[in-house]
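Narrative of accomplishments. A recurring question from our advisory board has been how the design workflow behaves on a single, concrete structure rather than in aggregate. To address it, we present the structure tokens for one chain from the evaluation set, followed by the sequence designed for it. No filtering or post-editing was applied between the two.
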């Protein structure tokens, strides 16, 4: 409560940083300069790259660093194949200066735009880059004297050719880049690549990424249309991004909170990938900065879609469709899918939250057609759990796997190395159907909530759904009245697995717990030696012998779980507590109010970012916390 009081006092005395924002609707994006640090110079050994990417593109660009100035945007970088096609596909000079004469004056990454300005003596070059669509980025160059453009080095095996006013770069992977120049540019080949004499102080260049050479002609034609009417496309781009921010920003929140919300939107959109290969719909990857995360995961997709529903609902819908494209005949939704289908994981599913995502989309769009489209698939997935993951048929399910391994079963829970599963064993339910010998409270709370939503959807579209809801059974069975908390239970003995973990947040998030159960759990949730840590609501109680503040699912902060706990408090009327904990999240996580990327996990003891940067579900749940803040 002290932090909330401090914020209130600062706002009352006029602290600019804490004052609610008065948004200028004409250009909201310009108010969020330096939103993320994406400075990075190309390096053959460096595979982790956070970059400027947008509109579902499979390419990205970084800003050059102070110590190695390229006088252009670095890239493009292939997000799927993890390489720089060029260190700088377009470098610009003007006047009588050589490239080495130009030094950095300014760089910026704001929502939907990167910018740099360099100087050499009295001359300057100013560059802006926008993504017009998933294939083409538009570069605007403006200088104090006629421009000369060239490229830096090209990646190993890249072949260049000229096609009228295009420079085409072909990579051995099959990917490629098309540089499109205005008709007035005089293009020649040089020792390292190309040179283009513009003879004007302002010009536009298109940079179009092709995933395979079959796309080349169509994408080049589309890019040429952009060059003919660049300002029209730039205006449309700005309207899209300002629309995103108009949809989510509030005027009654501190500026620091607004900054976090905008950074969350930028992160989610930077992780948008358009359909490609075996990804049959557009979707959101967990992190474009980490190679193994450039695919779609089931419960990740559900969580992303809940946040996207508020500002990009069509992408939210496609994000869900992408996973259901791979629904199995028995109703199962597989763990994850990639461009290359050989990388898909069919060994396990993920926690059932799909109906939650569909419901949020419906609440924001009132799109009954989408509910009708998804309803039979959602029902099939819901019933799969009771058919394949209820070992003793007592209407209480277990996490499990297709291949009978504890590894895949832990993956199915989403909590890969959670302490509660340390002693779990596998039992077989049938062909290709195995369970942990442990019934899980979070899984059954999710299923109870899914049942409630499926009943809602059935009424909306005039269908029938009368499967029993086991929410009351779940709330009673998994609650230990002696300890005043929720726990998993062993299949054979019914013994409680007395590990105080984040799975206990879910009955409160899903609202199946009673008010009395929340009242009894409240002292545990507020205990600073357990869950009220420096960053609140870790994945394991801090007084557990196996607690590690940086131990993946054994003590750090996963912001989806922190959100579940805070939302649970709000659900049961503890709004002041929920606001206090939200303030702690927003103010204590290192770099959150600055330009540091949003991470996958955080150290619960000090707020230091741990695993993968530019992480989508952390961003999604920060956005949900922001939207819930100071709301009853």
């Amino acid at each position: 409560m002290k932090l909330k009081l401090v914020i209130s006092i600062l706002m009352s005395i006029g602290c600019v940083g804490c004052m609610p924002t008065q948004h200028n609707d004409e250009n909201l994006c310009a108010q969020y300069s330096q939103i993320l640090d994406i400075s990075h110079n190309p390096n053959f050994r460096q595979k982790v790259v956070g970059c400027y990417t947008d509109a579902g593109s499979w390419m990205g660009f970084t800003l050059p660093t102070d110590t190695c100035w390229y006088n252009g945007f670095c890239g493009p970088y292939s997000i799927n194949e993890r390489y720089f096609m060029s260190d700088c596909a377009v470098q610009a000079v003007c006047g009588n200066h050589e490239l080495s004469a130009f030094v950095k004056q300014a760089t910026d990454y704001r929502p939907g735009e990167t910018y740099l300005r360099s100087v050499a003596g009295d001359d300057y070059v100013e560059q802006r880059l926008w993504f017009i669509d998933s294939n083409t980025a538009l570069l605007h160059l403006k200088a104090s004297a006629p421009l000369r453009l060239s490229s830096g080095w090209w990646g190993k095996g890249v072949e260049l050719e000229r096609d009228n006013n295009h420079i085409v770069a072909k990579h051995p992977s099959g990917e490629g880049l098309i540089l499109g120049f205005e008709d007035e540019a005089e293009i020649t080949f040089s020792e390292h690549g190309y040179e283009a004499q513009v003879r004007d102080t302002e010009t536009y260049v298109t940079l179009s990424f092709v995933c395979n050479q079959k796309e080349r002609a169509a994408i080049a034609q589309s890019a040429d249309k952009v060059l003919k009417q660049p300002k029209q496309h730039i205006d449309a781009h700005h309207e899209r991004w300002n629309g995103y921010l108009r949809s989510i920003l509030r005027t009654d929140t501190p500026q620091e909170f607004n900054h976090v919300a905008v950074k969350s939107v930028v992160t989610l959109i930077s992780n948008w990938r358009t359909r490609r290969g075996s990804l049959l719909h557009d979707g959101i990857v967990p992190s474009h900065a980490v190679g193994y995360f450039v695919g779609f995961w089931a419960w990740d997709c559900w969580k992303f879609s809940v946040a996207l529903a508020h500002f990009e609902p069509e992408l939210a819908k496609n994000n869900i469709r992408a996973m259901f494209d791979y629904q199995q005949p028995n109703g199962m939704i597989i763990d994850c899918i990639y461009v290359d289908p050989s990388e898909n994981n069919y060994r396990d599913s993920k926690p059932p939250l799909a109906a939650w995502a569909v419901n949020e989309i419906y609440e924001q769009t009132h799109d009954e057609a989408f509910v009708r489209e998804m309803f039979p698939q959602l029902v099939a997935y819901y019933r799969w759990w009771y058919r394949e993951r209820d070992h003793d048929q007592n209407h209480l399910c277990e996490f499990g796997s297709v291949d009978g391994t504890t590894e895949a079963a832990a993956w199915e829970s989403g909590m890969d190395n959670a302490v509660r599963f340390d002693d779990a064993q596998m039992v077989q339910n049938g062909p290709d159907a195995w369970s942990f010998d442990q019934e899980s409270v979070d899984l059954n709370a999710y299923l109870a909530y899914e049942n409630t939503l499926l009943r809602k959807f059935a009424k909306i579209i005039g269908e029938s759904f009368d499967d029993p809801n086991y929410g009351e059974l779940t709330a009673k069975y998994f609650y230990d009245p002696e300890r005043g908390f929720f726990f998993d239970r062993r299949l054979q003995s019914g013994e409680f697995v007395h590990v105080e973990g984040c799975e206990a947040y879910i009955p409160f998030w899903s609202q199946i717990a009673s008010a009395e159960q929340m009242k009894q759990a409240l002292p545990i949730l507020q205990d600073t030696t357990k869950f009220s840590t420096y960053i609140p609501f870790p994945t394991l109680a801090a007084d557990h012998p196996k607690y590690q503040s940086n131990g993946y699912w054994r003590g750090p902060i996963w912001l989806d779980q922190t959100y579940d706990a805070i939302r649970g408090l709000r659900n049961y009327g503890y709004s002041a507590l929920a606001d206090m904990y939200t303030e702690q999240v927003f103010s204590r996580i290192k770099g959150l109010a600055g330009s540091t990327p949003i991470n996958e996990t955080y150290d619960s003891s000090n707020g230091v970012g741990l695993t993968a940067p530019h992480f989508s579900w952390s961003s999604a749940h920060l956005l949900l916390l922001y939207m819930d803040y100071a709301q009853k």
